[in-house]
Amino acid sequence: MKRKVKKKITAKKSVLTFLHYFVLLAAIVFFVGPLGWELLVSFNAPEEAGRTDPKVLSKPSLRAWSYLKQADYFVFTKNSLIIVASSVFFTVFIGSLAAFAIARFNFKSKKALSFELLTLRMVPPITVLVPIFIIFRTLKLLYTYQGLIILYVAFNLPMTIWLMAGFFRDIPKSIEECALIDGSSWFRIYWRLVLPMSAPGVVAVTILNVIFTWNEFMFALIITSAETQTLPIAASGLMNPYTINWAGLAVVSIYITIPILIFALLIQRNLVRGISLGAIKE
Questions:
Q1: Per-residue model confidence (pLDDT) at position 182
Q2: CA 164 to the chain's CA centroid
Q3: What is the pLDDT of residues 22-38, one digit of tens each?
Q4: Which tens digit of pLDDT belongs to each residue from 213-265?
Q5: Which among 230, 213, 212 has a CA at the least distance from the CA of 222?
Q6: Taking the CB of residue 107, how many other CB atoms lie within 10 A of it?
Q7: Residue 134: what are its φ and ψ, rounded to 5°?
Q8: Which of 94, 109, 127, 223 shows its CA 20 to 30 Å from the CA of 191?
Q9: What pLDDT sits at residue 280?
């Protein structure tokens, strides 16, 4: 009887293990497969990319990659880097300050403010597109770096504040109390103690903001001009109602993805830091 039960348990575990790896493999193919196909298309001859019966690397060529230089994509890269770096810096800095205030100070309507922050993030951006366009046109912020940076900061702040406040609440208050007794100001406590101890939260929020800002399309389409447009807008120019530049689209898609991958690899080591690194436990 016991042997039968053990066999059933072993068989059940084997089935679950098989399903686990099958789902994992399917997810890898689903997400990585298109990137792999784009990579193959980008190293194939451009005339082979749009065929209905494409042959993988039938004519290996680097001609498609020359499109980046021909279409001046390095200028669009500069635009994207300026906008992403500026907006993410201001979003994380302002958002972490606001989150620290919410996590540590008591004030009227504190709970209501936290709920309103989430509500703001739930608003579909397209519903405020026309008012934003009118306001930015009045303030002469259309087709400028500053306009898009302000817009991204405003839309990413609610999520940043909400996430960072959660990390700050997990830090023992006794650390800050000791610092206050030693004569530290609240800003010094925030800058020297709380922010370094919340490194995993800062990194996670930074990654999310970088991804959202780097890939954002709708606002960039309306706010930017030919001189200030970002990479996603430039990539959309490869498609029109009559034709699609498949080879160029594959190259640009990979080109847009590479900076995000490099950024994630560079800062991934910070994700394993403990929130209370070097802190005392309450």
A1: 84
A2: 15
A3: 898 998 888 888 888 88
A4: 999 999 999 999 888 999 999 888 888 878 888 888 888 989 998 888 888 77
A5: 230
A6: 8
A7: -65, -45
A8: 109
A9: 39
Neighbouring-strand partners of residue 239: 244
Burial pattern 128-147, b for ≥16 Cβ within 10 A else e, equals eeeebeeebeeeebbbbbeb
Q: Please report, as a single letter, which amino acid is at residue 190.
A: Y
Sorted by where each starts, the structural domains of the chain and their CATH numbers stand as 2-64 (no CATH), 67-272 (1.10.3720.10)
Angle at 255 between CA 240 and CA 222, to 5 degrees: 50
Structure tokens at 29: 């193919």
Instruction: Answer for the pair 43, 57: CB distance below 8 angstroms, yes or no.
Output: yes
C-alpha 208: how far from its chain's center? 3
First to last CA, the chain: 51
Question: CA–CA separation, 209 vs 85, rounded Å?
Answer: 10
CA distances from 196 to 101, 167, 243, 276, 282 (A): 16, 11, 51, 9, 19
**44 DSSP β-pair partners:** 60
pLDDT value at residue 282: 42
* Angle at alpha carbon of residue 129, lines to 126 and 132, rounded to 5°: 150
**Tokens encoding 18:** 């098989």
Beta-bridge mates of residue 244: 239
Q: In the structure encoding, which two tokens stand for residue 220, read together?
A: 């960039």
Report pLDDT for 81. Answer: 94
Position of tokens 């504190």? 110
